[in-house]
């Protein structure tokens, strides 16, 4: 473990301390996980939690499960569920703040749908939107509010002006871009429709259901089926689709890109596998397993991984492969997936900061989960892997 992950800072800004994506909260989570699996101290975890929340917690409406009140609430939930400290007083206030954030964001999203306006993907996606907040509610067992999120996601899948309801008017950068004059359709688990598909499917498999949920799952599956590409590398999907490509019925992307968690076949196949289990579709499950395996065994895709991070590097792919294999019924296929993941080339860490997504804490967290001999906190439910 690098020195920066050992001792908490004496002072932490709210922007850094309350960021799970890029800041200190990821290191607090690392120490919670280490303590939960018997490799670390709960005292160290508590010191990091205390340092990260030394400033007033940010509960603005745009806060997400990776920054601000929802992120802090999630970390305290995992710590309280697995450790000796209850954190009852701060959790009560944070839970109320999170519920207020979710309800305000749901109200804004439903108003937007009522007006027939296209969404920004930050409204619905996993990293910054309501899918990520729904993942937190699912982990916390807050089923009533989770059902409201699921009902919104059902509405999101209904067509708007001839395109899928999740078609955004923005570019993949999240900004207006002349290269995407009609917006785009996003295939990434982190930013696109596979994230909502995964949450809808996991919740349905759990028994948390709302009217239209299976229909919504079906609409997303139809779209992914329509844009599935097949070639020497097996099944794959574009990263993003322009309006011109959608109108022409074909993508300009000629081959699969890196096989990452955030974008690429492993993330999409994970969502498809969840959907297959939710709907009892064994053929789709086999298709998803084959796609995941082909992506890892394709030398061109494997060598396109250029770092060791969770978001778009080997740590995320290996953790996704472990969770995928654990729920794969065919033992031989599960073993091949695990072997392919372990044989991926090691490009080095090349991490940016201490965060979960692209930082050293995320890499260390994935390694903890991959080598643990007992169950941990289940932190990767936030990545919709379980």
Automatic annotation (TrEMBL):
Gene3D superfamilies: 1.50.10.20. InterPro entries: LanC (IPR033889), LANC-like (IPR007822). It holds the Pfam family LANC_like. This is Lanthionine synthetase C family protein. It comes from Kitasatospora phosalacinea. The lineage of its organism: Bacteria, Bacillati, Actinomycetota, Actinomycetes, Kitasatosporales.
């Amino acid at each position: 473990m690098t020195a920066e992950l050992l001792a908490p800072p004496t002072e932490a800004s709210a922007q850094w301390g309350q960021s799970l994506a890029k800041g200190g909260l990821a290191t607090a989570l690392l120490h919670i996980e280490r303590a939960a699996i018997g490799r670390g101290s709960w005292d160290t975890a508590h010191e990091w939690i205390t340092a990260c929340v030394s400033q007033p917690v940010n509960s603005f409406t745009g806060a997400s499960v990776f920054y601000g009140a929802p992120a802090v609430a999630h970390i305290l939930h995992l710590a309280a569920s697995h450790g000796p400290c209850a954190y009852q007083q701060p959790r009560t206030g944070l839970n109320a703040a999170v519920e207020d954030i979710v309800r305000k964001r749901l109200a804004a999203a439903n108003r937007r749908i009522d007006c027939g306006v296209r969404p920004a993907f930050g409204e619905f996606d996993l990293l910054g939107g309501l899918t990520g907040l729904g993942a937190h509610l699912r982990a916390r067992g807050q089923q009533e509010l989770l059902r409201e999120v699921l009902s919104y996601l059902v509405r999101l899948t209904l067509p708007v002006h001839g395109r899928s309801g999740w078609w955004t008017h923005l570019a993949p950068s999240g900004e207006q871009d002349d290269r995407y004059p009609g917006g785009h359709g996003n295939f990434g688990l982190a930013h696109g429709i596979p994230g909502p598909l995964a949450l809808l499917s996991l919740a349905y498999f759990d028994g948390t259901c709302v009217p239209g949920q299976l229909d919504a799952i079906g609409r997303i599956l139809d779209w992914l089926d329509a844009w599935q590409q097949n070639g020497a590398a097996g099944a794959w999907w574009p990263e993003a689709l322009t309006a011109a490509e959608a109108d022409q019925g074909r993508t300009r992307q000629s081959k699969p890109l890196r096989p990452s968690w955030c974008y690429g076949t492993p993330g999409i196949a994970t969502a498809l596998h969840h959907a297959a289990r939710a709907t009892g579709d064994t053929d789709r499950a086999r298709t998803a397993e084959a796609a995941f395996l082909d992506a890892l065994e394709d030398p061109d895709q494997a060598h396109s991984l250029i770092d060791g991070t969770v978001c778009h590097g080997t740590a995320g792919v290996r953790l996704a492969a472990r969770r995928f294999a654990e729920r794969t019924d065919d033992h031989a296929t599960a073993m091949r997936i695990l072997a392919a993941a372990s044989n991926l080339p090691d490009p080095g860490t090349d991490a940016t900061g201490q965060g979960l997504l692209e930082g050293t804490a995320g890499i260390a967290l994935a390694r903890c989960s991959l080598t643990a001999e007992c169950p941990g906190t289940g932190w990767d439910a936030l990545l919709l892997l379980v």
